[in-house]
Amino acid sequence: MPHDHPPKSAPHGHQHGAHDHQHGDHHGHAHGHDRGHGHKHDHGDHSHDHGGPGHSHDRPQGSERQLLIAFILTAGFMFAEVIGGLISGSLALIADAGHMLTDAASLALALFALRISRRPSDQRRSYGYGRMQVLAAFVNGISLVALVTWIAVEAALRLFKPVPVLAGPMLAIAVLGLLVNLAAFWILHRGERGNLNVDGAMAHVLGDLLGSAAAIVAALVIMATGWTPVDPLLSVLVAGLILRTALRITRESGHILLQGAPTELDPTQLEREVRAAVPGVAGVHHVHLWSLTPDERIITLHAVLGPDADGDQVTAAIANFLRSSRGIGHVTVQIERQPCAEPEHRCAG
Prior knowledge:
This protein is α/β, with parallel strands linked by helices. It has 9 helices and 7 strands; from the N terminus they run ββββαααααααββαβα.
């Protein structure tokens, strides 16, 4: 349904005319910009495909319930593990208790981000709040790296200066901790997979689970042999396992926050595919590709029309091709009637 908007100033100093909006059923929007020989743009049809006003995104309620249950289990047992670690003198238990503290915080952050991400878009945040989950995953990844560093430092100090460890209380609390962490991990595993926010929370709980398992092994070794260095050594082993996941989550979420292109999509390859698949396209340049969340991809590009090509038809065809073949939901196309007049390096990107 057409709407009239007042003229707005475009990037690069271009002036814009009226916008016609057509609303469809999918996320994303195809913007057709028909540029003449000057620097004025006459706007064709902008087809915005989304499920309602703004870009509101439905998030699974199940993941929220599972995060809440995991948070209650983790926070509740954390206090028992702190007391047990202090009584027994076990670094493995104290490290695991500290890890459970960060877990409780990370689960609370994940839960908060999941709720915020369901808010609809507004004038200030036209894409909504979906990226809150990516931000929470990045914070969780950084906190995991900090925790691993703390465990490694404490373990080194314990190796140089061993302390007595009460293996009996350590074993009992470690077994209880293992059961709690298994329950929390199983609950989260049933939630939304591939979500960096949930994956970050799962990484924290998995670290707890491995920490409890290491504490059980250390307690049994100490009970059998009295060799206390096994406690900090196993703590370092668990920390190394946690570090791998922490770096992956931090790297992936940081890449999204920096608006990096999705790893499975090559902008240069997309240029060739669009030219080959869409009739009337003589050239493609200024391709910019990034992700709002791991599941929501965005692309903007300039398309040069061939002779007698219709700008509106080409715009719709490009948007449909990218959505159907590459799963890119937000598509913005600027149509040009002449080859790129800017320097070559700018036409390429």
